[in-house]
Write a structure and sequence with these properties.
The protein has five helices and six strands, in the order H-H-H-H-E-E-E-E-E-E-H. The chain has about 170 residues and is an alpha+beta fold. The strands form two sheets. The protein has a three-stranded antiparallel beta sheet with strand order 1-4-5. It has a three-stranded mixed beta sheet with strand order 2-6-3. Strand 4 and strand 5 form a beta hairpin.
């Protein structure tokens, strides 16, 4: 009997009658292939957390990111949020470095002027009574929180402003 063409095999009601399948089921072979590839993919995409070299590299990367963040913060006018005229040309390069950090998967959390929540992964250096606040607000960031692939690399350090009415009510 001549072998049917591929189109006839696809259109056949029961293609197993016309095609010889191998002894091993395809699903089991695919599962075995995926299981073999997963450890290699995991090693290629995530650094070895236990390696001292990796830990040192991540710590140095956090320091670099913190310094670039500070430079960016000092180049921006706090009132307008725009770069100052004297630093506008340099600001583009700092923004470029911040974009590279984002492409690497490094997230730099600057929580300035956001409402304070006790569950945030930050270290509060002090609570400071501040006028014109309605609720506890992060008024200064000393070090930003840095996160890489859902892993906290550097805990942020902040100053939290508390409303004067709440500060005066406390004993």
């Amino acid at each position: 009997m001549p072998s049917p063409n591929p189109l006839a095999q696809l259109l056949a009601r029961d293609p197993r009658r016309e095609v010889d399948f191998p002894e091993a089921p395809l699903a089991a072979a695919m599962a075995e292939l995926v299981a073999l590839q997963q450890p290699a993919l995991a090693e290629a995409t995530t650094p070895n957390a236990g390696s001292p070299d990796t830990e040192k590299m991540m710590a140095l990367l956090c320091q670099v990111a913190t310094h670039v963040w500070r430079a960016k913060f000092r180049m921006v006018d706090p009132v307008t949020g725009e770069p100052r005229d004297e630093t506008r040309r340099l600001y583009r390069h700092v923004e470029g470095a911040m974009e590279v950090f984002a492409q690497m998967g490094l997230m730099i959390n600057d929580l300035i002027n956001q409402r304070y929540d006790a569950g945030l992964p930050i270290k509060v250096l002090t609570f400071q009574p501040t006028p014109n606040l309605l609720h506890d607000t992060i008024i200064e960031v000393v070090r930003p929180s840095i996160i890489y692939q859902d892993r906290l690399l550097q805990m942020g350090e902040v100053v939290v402003g508390v409303p004067l009415t709440l500060a005066s009510d406390k004993p």
